[in-house]
Give the backbone structure.
Amino acid sequence: MREQPKPNSMKKQNLVIATRQSALALWQAHMIQDLIKSLPAFANFTPELLPMVSTGDIKLDTVLAKVGGKGLFTYELEQALKAQQAQIAVHSLKDVPMIPEEQFFYTYNARHYHEDLAVFPQGSPYQRLADLPAGSVVGTASVRRKALLAHFYPHLQTKLLRGNVNTRLAKLNDPEQGYDAIILARAGLARLEFLEQLQVEILSPQNGWVSAPGQGIVAVQWDKNQKVAAYSEFLNDPVNQLLTDIERGVARHLGGSCSLPLGVYAGFVNSQGQEVATNIISSQRNAFALEVQKQVCSSADLEQTEQLLQAYQQQLKSLPALQEFAQSLDLAQIQVQVFVGDLQAQKTISRSYSLPFGKHSIVDLQTPELQAQVDSFVATIVQDLQDQGFKEIKTLLDQQLAEQ
Ligand SMILES: NCc1[nH]cc(CCC(=O)O)c1CC(=O)O
């Protein structure tokens, strides 16, 4: 028998990770770097960071909808991939355009928090948006958050607030800036460990405040033209891939970018109608995947990616422990919340949809059958939103944006 080369006897290749330079972006890139270091399939790679500046970090004076939304935070990182200066790029999925260029695709990571938060300045007597006095000023740059504020809190005004998370918090606590509250993503504040020190109100999809498609998920962007793309599946979380396909699918069909005030959130609900925490399902599923990856990689030639991947996927599907775990889960349906509104709350669509989901499907989420089911579910949602007046909202919104 041919002697298998040992991982540590091979020459290691650099795996360059393109990232933005904000504290949040760097935290996320380090998370992916640590993950890669811990995965047996990447034993031949040395991950290192390439911090970069994006257009979105420079143009800080306009609403996101007006600066374009087409890859504002991703363009420069994609250029580095194309030039092969980097092998992967790490993004907040929320910032990733709905229609990627043909040569790119994404893998997804755990989603701990999907919600938005209202954050109040230090020492503020208020802890809920509803309690703020009429005319109070709330900072945001997102048209989705503006439309939600107009819909649920018509007594409040909004004022443009741009910059990365750290900058926005500094502006909130500077009385000269005049903000009574700002809206931020829970995920970003949790990652930067700011949550403990802040006075916040959680705004959740279950209460109608629907988060952005993909919010809270860290995505890795891969370039089909680079060899390392063959390893992408080892880094993927199929649970979040499934839910994300629904959220981003709806947004894509509605022509969504950040210029549309659209919220879409998909999650699992059990037979009692309660939400099942996705991060618990995916972390457990990923723990099984890691065990399989260890076994497969210790007995194989790491350069034989194709075979490695096949063995990995097959063993994972037939793993008794994963089957058992899947059967213990009560995932009765996938529930999707959608919000579309305009900036003056003249017209709003707020709907909930559900897709029946089998107990065992968690074992293999990548079947063509499930994919087809998801596609037709997305088509049904989009059709319903159009029947409910989506087109009129879009026209209204375009007028409002033009007047601004
Ligand atoms: N556009 C900025 C951005 N992109 C992703 C996040 C938060 C992290 C996430 O959603 O994963 C933020 C900050 C915010 O909206 O408060």
Remarks:
- The pocket of PBG is lined by residues 92, 94-95, 165, 184-185, 187-188, 215-216 (CB under 6 Å).
- The mean pLDDT is 91.
- The radius of gyration is 22 Å.
- The domain at 13-114+213-396 is CATH 3.40.190.10 (D-Maltodextrin-Binding Protein; domain 2).
